[in-house]
Design a protein that fits this description.
Number of strands: 7
Family: Belongs to the class I-like SAM-binding methyltransferase superfamily. EFM5 family.
Keywords: Cytoplasm, Methyltransferase, Transferase
Structural class: alpha/beta
Function: Protein-lysine methyltransferase that selectively catalyzes the trimethylation of EEF1A at 'Lys-79'.
Radius of gyration: 20 Å
Number of domains: 1
Largest sheet: 7 strands, mixed
Catalytic activity: L-lysyl-[protein] + 3 S-adenosyl-L-methionine = N(6),N(6),N(6)-trimethyl-L-lysyl-[protein] + 3 S-adenosyl-L-homocysteine + 3 H(+)
Oligomer: single chain
Enzyme class: transferase
Length: 217
């Protein structure tokens, strides 16, 4: 035993608050993992900033999923390219018509492999390195959110988009990429303003290459 209470280490109020917040977040992640019904919740897989992951707000994920369903059409196929939040929203069964389309999520983060055959490993540095099961021009709409705001990244992701898409492209990226996106994909900036669970320092926008409700939202 200690000879004095002074020998017992104490934590500052700030440190205690930080620990409580950490345990709270840890509990949320654990609860998501434990409950099968929540496996498709936006945020069920925690963001990893090292992979430039920033999840959409629930409202934005819903609106983008609704757009994808409308444009894919009955029996359509949707590719969510580095956009797992939208894939998750599509699989929740809360978006009208989502049961009449199919979707895959192309992601570098192998934690999403828990989604089984819907998961396709994707490294934008190897834009055309895709499994044989992913046929060219086999998706009615490709919804893409390149992980980095750089010419190199968008140019490589564009190769993947053009390989996957039958024509329709919904691109979500920084406003600063507008001119390059137009040159590469012939897209227009939408009035719709996507939002994230965390505030981003760069203005974020959506772009489409087809007549869309998002253009005039």
């Amino acid at each position: 035993m200690s000879d004095s209470d002074d020998d017992v280490p104490t934590l500052s109020a700030h440190t205690l608050a930080a620990l409580q917040e950490f345990y709270k977040e840890t509990k949320v992640v654990t609860d998501h993992s434990a409950a099968p019904t929540d496996q498709f919740a936006v945020g069920a897989v925690e963001e990893d900033w090292r992979m430039s992951q920033f999840w959409y707000s629930d409202e934005t994920a819903t609106q983008l999923a609704e757009e994808a369903v409308r444009e894919a059409g009955e029996g359509g196929r949707i590719a969510c390219l580095s956009a797992p939040s939208v894939y998750q929203k599509l699989k929740q069964g809360v978006v009208d018509g989502s049961d009449r389309v199919s979707a895959v999520v192309l992601e570098y983060d192998r934690r999403f492999a828990s989604y089984g055959e819907d998961f396709v490993f994707y490294d934008y540095n190897k834009p055309l390195s895709l499994p044989d099961s992913v046929s060219p021009h086999s998706f009615d709409i490709v919804l893409a959110d390149p992980p980095y705001l750089s010419e190199e990244c968008l140019s490589k992701v564009t190769q993947t988009i053009k390989y996957l898409s039958k024509g329709k492209v919904l691109l979500c990226t920084g406003a600063i990429m507008e001119n390059l996106a137009k040159d590469l994909l012939d897209v227009k900036m939408c009035s719709f303003l996507p939002k994230h669970n965390r505030n981003l320092s760069n203005e974020f926008r959506c772009f489409v290459n087809y007549p869309s409700r998002l253009l005039s939202c």
